[in-house]
Amino acid sequence: MIRIIVADDQPLMRDGLSSILNLRKEVEVVATAADGQEAFEQASLWKADIVLMDIRMPGVSGVEGTKRIRQHLPHTKVLMLTTFKDSELIMQALAEGASGYLLKDMRTDVIVQAIMTVHGGGVVLPQELTAQVLAERKRSLADEDMPEVAKELTEREWQVLKQLGYGRSNKEIAELFFITEGTVKNHVSNIIHKLSLRDRTQAAIFAVRYGISTYPI
Question: What CATH architecture applies to the domain 2-124?
Answer without folding.
Answer: 3-Layer(aba) Sandwich (3.40)
